[in-house]
Amino acid sequence: MTHALPVGLTATSVVAASSANLGPGFDSLGIALSLYDEIVVETTESGLTVEVEGQGAGQVPLDASHLVVRAIERGMQAAGVTAPGLVVRCRNDIPHSRGLGSSAAAVVGGLAVVNGLVAQAGLATLSQQDLVQLSSEFEGHPDNASAAVLGGGVVSWTEVDGTATHYRAAPIRVHPDIRLFAAIPEVRSSTAETRVLLPENVSHADARFNLSRAALLVVALTERPDLLMAATEDVLHQPQRAAAMPASAEYLRVLRRYGIAGVLSGAGPSVLALTTSDLPAEAFEYGPANGFTVTEMTVGDSVRWASGVAVRS
């Protein structure tokens, strides 16, 4: 049974950026970052109005093809509701096409804001698992999406049951001593474009290497930050993508020369440094000198939603 939402409802969601892979954890490990997008939605009598401020303004479509709008429509379908019209306002701080999970944030935020609408109608809201499943269907894999939903660190995986694909994720508590530095360039990159650089098959030796490092990375993130350098080594995707983003590949080499566990953030071109100390001055200064904005971040929160009021802190 489908319920029509009344006109005049307002809801808000706030969703974090994320970094996936973290070196060896290809399509499985992720972490939320303290950089947030906000979505405000109002039900109206008819039509669709989309407004975008900040990142992506003047560049993304302002119609039903907008990713946030598509996610809202999917969320309403899952919740069993319709709306005669919508005003969707997006206030974006997460840079687009930089490997910081902007598309996952758009989808998760769009799905979550539906909860703020249906709660006012006295209907059941989407659970965290619902949000992981629905958002991962957009992404095709749950690493960024689950980090945006759950916040903190996540281990994600996929289960196939006949023709059904189930996306799962479990949170991990990131050690409080770990500090995160994101180096964000002006240049952009497409996940689809860089994924084609990856080989269809890998050797047993490379698979074994990454399995050991991914397992070790969970230990390093939660209990043993002193193991981060070894735990973030990767042979499956970062070397293969290096030619497409030479500046990022060189920054990784610089960080690691100074003993900092640097990784490509998602498919790049942003770089994420994980450390328990300050960045060495030379490594920090290398960023701005070579087109990167370097910012210290904290571990991001889970997606938040509210009915009628802003939830951005």
Structure description:
By secondary structure, the protein is α+β, with helices and mostly antiparallel strands. The protein contains ten helices and 13 strands. It has helices spanning 67-79, 102-120, 128-139, 143-150, 191-195, 204-222, 228-231, 238-241, 246-257, 281-289; strands at residues 3-4, 10-21, 25-44, 47-54, 81-82, 85-92, 153-161, 164-172, 179-185, 261-264, 271-275, 292-297, 304-307. Helix 1 crosses helix 2 (102-120) and helix 3 packs antiparallel against helix 4 (143-150). This is Homoserine kinase. Catalyzes the ATP-dependent phosphorylation of L-homoserine to L-homoserine phosphate. Belongs to the GHMP kinase family. Homoserine kinase subfamily.
Tell me the total number of β-strands.
13
Question: Any idea what the radius of gyration is?
Answer: 20 Å
CATH topology title of the largest domain: Ribosomal Protein S5, domain 2
How many separate domains make up the residues? 2
Element-by-element helix/strand order = EEEEHEEHHHEEEHHHHHEEHEE
Oligomer: single chain
Beta-strand proportion: 25-35%
CATH architecture of the largest domain: 2-Layer Sandwich
Protein name: Homoserine kinase
Family: Belongs to the GHMP kinase family. Homoserine kinase subfamily.
Function: Catalyzes the ATP-dependent phosphorylation of L-homoserine to L-homoserine phosphate.
GO molecular function: ATP binding; homoserine kinase activity
